[in-house]
């Protein structure tokens, strides 16, 4: 694992990485300047709905976690931690603890998302992002500036500066002052082609998955596919974020290190001893337009009675409950799912909640990142049993998922935070700003039909196709 500790830079030099960075635990790292963190309350009316900021941030590599106008957005880079291979979660956690031990924090707001926070994104598979790969298996980014809002328009808003000096960065004013904002441009004409596998080949992969399930190798497997998009102009993630946050406001719109999306699935939220996980499994395409409301109600009723989708959902809920149980003193697991209505699809959904147990021997309760690591991969994105499903994915899926369907989110100095599953997402190419890789996956059980699963994957690609429209 490597850690990159960046000194404060001018606004026109945001994000330029240091050529050499000390490793956590080394004498050089511990002797480097401490992060100085200042959180102050913003005046009423600022910044308003965070959605309105997403395409106006001063950095083309925004950091974001926003839902219904609340959340946190960041820009610049005060610190970067990178982890590799199977130990990526634990290594990132250990490096973060070292950062906390050296930080000086002044927080007059004291709400989730204020003070020292970091955004993170991780690879799906232990075998992805190993030491020989070009990209790490996990990345934690501490921004230079964070703007947050909690409690809606009448709630509390704040700004946090994370620097190695004393002054608030000058570019905060340009973001909060509407008269000084310059919206980003769209990507122009976008063309898409099949990614690692053609649509026809992918249905054959699904058929193979169904056959393995029917012969008893496993009970469920989640199989994914990718689509490659090429844009006329360089793709700016801020453009995508604003469109996603407006159209999919019930989802968690995120951007971390080139991974952008609007996920409907909350892997885990940890807040003051309470944990929540929103589990999704079981999907049906939704008809568009207001005139289709009656049809959507019929589809929702069909989904709620579908034995195939209920079976898929039951596996996903059980895997989350089993993973959380060792960390909780009490839990609530719903007896039946509800139907989550999104613009493009309907999902079966369950909110699993729990109360964190105190750590043994005086040790602290697990952080939200530790909980995310324990939950990943759930049956909703891998399958049941987990090991058999993971092995089958590696054998037949035919692509590297990279950070698709893996934890993405944020956490703070107290360990609390929110981690989603990187679904309805895309990865911007680090080599070519015109190229974007879109992902979609489907849960496969014995009753699955390959053609229907292909249609479901197309429905799940709609949000990212929409995000790239000019």
TrEMBL record:
Enumerate the catalysed reactions.
chorismate = isochorismate
Boundaries of every Chorismate-utilising enzyme C-terminal domain copy: 199-460
Which top EC class is named for this enzyme in its record? isomerase
Report the superkingdom from the record: Bacteria
What UniProt keywords apply to this chain's record, in alphabetical order? Isomerase
Q: What is its EC number?
A: 5.4.4.2
Q: Report if keyword Isomerase is assigned.
A: yes
Where do the segments described as Disordered lie?
Answer: 1-29
Matches recorded under Gene3D superfamilies: Anthranilate synthase
InterPro entries registered for this protein in UniProt: ADC_synthase, Chorismate_C, IsoChor_synthase
Q: Please state which protein family the record places this protein in.
A: Belongs to the isochorismate synthase family.
Matching NCBIfam families: isochor_syn
Task: Write the protein's name.
Answer: isochorismate synthase
């Amino acid at each position: 694992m490597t850690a990159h500790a960046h000194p404060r830079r001018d606004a026109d030099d945001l994000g330029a990485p240091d050529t050499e960075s000390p490793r956590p635990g080394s004498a050089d790292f511990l002797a480097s300047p401490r992060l100085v963190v200042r959180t102050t309350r913003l005046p009423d009316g600022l910044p308003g709905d965070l959605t309105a900021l997403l395409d106006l941030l001063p950095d083309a590599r925004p950091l974001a976690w926003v839902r219904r106008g609340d959340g946190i957005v960041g820009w610049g880079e005060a610190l970067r931690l990178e982890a590799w291979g199977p130990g990526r979660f634990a290594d990132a956690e250990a490096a973060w603890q070292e950062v906390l031990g050296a930080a000086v924090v002044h927080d007059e707001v004291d709400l989730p998302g204020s003070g020292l926070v970091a955004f993170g994104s991780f690879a799906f598979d232990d075998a992805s992002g190993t030491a020989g790969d070009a990209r790490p298996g996990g990345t934690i980014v501490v921004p230079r500036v964070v703007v947050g809002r909690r409690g809606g328009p009448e709630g509390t808003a704040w700004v946090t500066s994370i620097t190695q000096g004393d002054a608030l960065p000058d570019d905060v004013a340009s973001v909060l002052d509407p008269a000084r904002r310059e919206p980003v441009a769209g990507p122009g004409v976008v063309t898409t082609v099949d990614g690692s596998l053609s649509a026809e080949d992918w249905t054959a992969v699904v058929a193979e998955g169904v056959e393995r399930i029917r012969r008893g190798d496993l009970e469920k497997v989640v199989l994914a596919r990718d689509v490659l998009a090429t844009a006329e102009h360089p793709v700016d993630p801020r453009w995508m974020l604003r469109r996603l946050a407006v159209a999919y406001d019930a989802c968690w719109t995120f951007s971390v290190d080139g991974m952008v999306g609007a996920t409907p699935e909350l892997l885990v939220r940890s807040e003051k001893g309470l944990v929540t996980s929103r589990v999704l499994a079981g999907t049906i395409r939704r008809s568009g337009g207001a005139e289709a409301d009656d049809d959507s109600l019929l589809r929702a009723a069909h989904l709620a009675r579908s034995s195939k989708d209920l079976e898929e959902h039951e596996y996903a809920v059980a895997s989350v409950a089993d993973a959380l149980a060792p960390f909780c003193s009490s839990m609530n697991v719903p007896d039946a799912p509800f139907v989550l209505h999104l613009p493009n699809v309907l999902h079966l959904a369950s909110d699993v909640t729990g109360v964190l147990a105190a750590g043994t021997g005086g040790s602290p309760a697990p952080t939200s990142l530790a909980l995310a690591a324990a939950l990943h991969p759930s049956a909703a994105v891998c399958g049941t049993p987990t090991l058999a499903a993971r092995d089958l994915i590696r054998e037949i899926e035919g692509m590297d998922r990279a950070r698709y369907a893996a934890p993405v989110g944020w956490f703070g100095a107290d360990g609390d935070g929110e981690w989603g599953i990187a679904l309805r997402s895309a990865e911007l190419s680090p080599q070519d700003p015109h190229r974007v890789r879109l992902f979609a996956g489907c849960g496969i059980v014995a009753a699955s039909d390959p053609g229907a699963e292909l249609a479901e994957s197309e429905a799940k690609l709609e949000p990212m196709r929409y995000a790239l429209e000019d």
